[in-house]
Each structure stands twice: as C-alpha cells, then as structure tokens.
Amino acid sequence: MAAPEPETPPRRRRFGLLALLVALAMLALALHWISQPERVARLILAQVGNALGLEITSSGASEYRLRATPMLTIRGVVARKPGDATPLLRADRIRLELPWSTIRARGADLTVRRIELDAPQLDLPALQRWLATRPPSKEPRLPTLTDGLRIVRGNVAGDGWRVEQIHVDVPSFHPDRAVRARLLGRFATGELRVPFDVRAALTRPAAQAGLGVVGNVNVLSPPWTMPMRTRLSGRLHNGANGIGLDGMRVGADATYRNGETDLAFTYGLAGPLRVRDGTLRISPLGAVVYGSGAVPNLQGTGAFAFGDSLNLQLDGTLSSWPRAWPALPSPLGESISPLPFALDYRGRADLSSRTALKLRRDTTDFDGEFRLPAILRWIDTFDRASPLPPLKGHLSTPKLEIAGATLEGVEVEFGEDETP
Description:
It comes from Lysobacter soli. This protein is α+β, with helices and mostly antiparallel strands. It has helices at about 10-35, 35-50, 100-105, 125-135, 370-380, and strands spanning about 55-60, 65, 70-80, 90-95, 110, 115-120, 120-125, 145, 150-155, 160-170, 180-190, 190-200, 210-220, 225-240, 240-260, 260-275, 280-290, 300-305, 310-320, 340-345, 355-360, 365-370, 390-400, 405-415.
C-alpha cells in the first residue's frame, strides 16, 4: 500500500493565494488604467514629445479602439518647443489607425493605416525655431499610410500672412512611390484673398524629387479679381537656406476683371523658391508676360520677397508700346525700339503702395512712380478719361511734336492725379 502524499503546507497555500490575489489586483489596475483613454493619450504624447524635443499636451476627451485595427483619437492637442510661448501646432482632433503588426514591431515597421487631422494650426516661425534646435540627421524615415491622410480646416500662419481653410486629401503615401494629393484653401494677407483648388503630384517624398501642381487660383482684391489656370513645377529643396523648390517654374493663363473690363494674358515665372523665417523669396527671378489690348508684352529679371511686406525688383524690356494705350507723340510714337524699364516695389501685398518706375525709349527717359490701383482705374476708363496715366515723376526728351509744333529740350513734370 502506497504511503499517502504529504499535504501542501498551509504556508505554501497561503503564498500561492497571495500571489494570485496580487496578479488579479494588478490585472484589475491595468484594466482600470487602460479603460481611461486620457491616461493612454498622455503616455503616448509624452513618449512622442520626448523623442521630438517637444512639449505635447491634450485637453479634450480622447478615445481608442483595440479590436480590428487599433485606433487612437486625441483632442485638443498642443505642441510647443520647450520655453517657447507660441505653440508650433494646435489641432482640434488627431486620429491615428495603426495595424497590430506595426505596434508589435516597436518602431521597426512604420506602416500606418490612416491619419486624420481636424483644424490643425501650424505656426511657421515657431516650427522653424524648433527645427533649428534639432540635431543634424540622415534623411528621416517616413511612414507608409496605406489608407492615406486627410486634413480639414487647416491653417498655416506666417509673418503677416496665412493660408486658411486648408483641405488636403492624400489617398495613400509610400516613401518610395509617387504621391498624389488634392489641396484646397485660401491665402490671405490684409484685404487680399487668394483661394485655390489644385492637384499635386510628387515623384517621391524626398529631397530633389519632382513636384507638379495644376489647378485654379483666383486673386481677389475688390473691386477687381484675377482668376487663372496655374501650372507649377520644381524639385523639392531642404537646406540651411530654407525649404522650397529648385528650378521652380510657374505658368498661368489669367484674366483681369473689373466691372466691364476683361483683360486676358499669360505669364511665367522661374527661379529658386525658398521659405525661411516666415519669408518667401525667389532670387534670381525671371518673368515674362504675353498680353493683348492694354496688357503689354514684357520680360525681365529681378528678385521677389514676401513676408511682413512684399518686395519686387524687376529690370526688363517692354517689347513695344501697347496699341490700346494712348498714342505717344511724335517721334516717340513712330519708334519701333523696345522700352527698357526698371521697377521697384516695396509695400503692401495688394500692390497698393507706391511703385518706382524708370522707363526709356531711345533718348527719352521717364523716372517716377505710380500706384497700381490708380493705374487699373485709369485702364478701366481710359477711353473716356485723361490721356495721361496717373503717374508722378519727370520726363526728359530732346524733341517732341505736339499739334504741329516741334518742341526741343523738353522737360515734363507729372503730378499724380488718381482721379480718372
């Protein structure tokens, strides 16, 4: 007969029971903790903030889902550089869908199903201040978005300008494939508004990749508007002198409209585009305009900058005096020589400030200035207004023939009169 097994000592049973109770308590605490999305959101934001050198907080109700494809929604997100009073990013809502395979990979796999942002507000100067503190690194790893990216009611604020009501729809995003997107929004500064609806294509999301954009853009500066069909191309640039485009080319078929006036023309711009410290620059800049009627044909080179004000310098040539403009007196009117010009504008973005202008034909010189709104009003009504445009400046010519009389050594002072 076998001897009976010794009974488990009461002490061992008590230890096993205690361990089970501790495990159950820990499980209950864990379930209680993960049942509160705000805590999960704070933990994730803290980890992301530590990795990026940012303070990231959320103030709205958060939620997550673990079944099927895990999803995390965070509301009231604010991200700022430590010690910076201005957040570089705010968002009403950020929604992130991550496959389980990505979560288990712990960073080795950056596949994301979808990202959505509601009302993100990006402060460009604050973003660039943060970027300046980041250590130099190799080309960053980019995620794969199998179901794309969607942004609604976005806003980008520069220095004296903003792009508002931004809607972006990217069907899918892969680091080594072409990317396509639709972008809608409205550029705004002062009273000027420029709504746009364009489609963009990128050969791949990397430096020096080719970018193409085509769509509708409309410049609104009451009482006139200028709708245009625009095409843009270039290569992405990211360097110490800013972000932008190399080899940028812009072409557009535009129409200036004001009341009963419709002036159609085509223009082109070319040059390296840079954005740094909230200012957009194109230098050197090449420009051409092909017009008819009151729009002259011209070409020129110079520089363009736009930040808290707009600066434009252009040296070029008018190929001829437009036939729709009032006829020049003899012998200027008979000359077929081109008209070299130098234009310098520094002021408001709607081009309402004074523009300096130097114009020459043969031995005749004009040195003065004008305001574009006054010139546009004169163009709109010059069939019944003064034959002289509203200019201010000095004209000198060795000879003029007026009403059958020949004048020599002519010096003319123009006084600005903005009334057509």
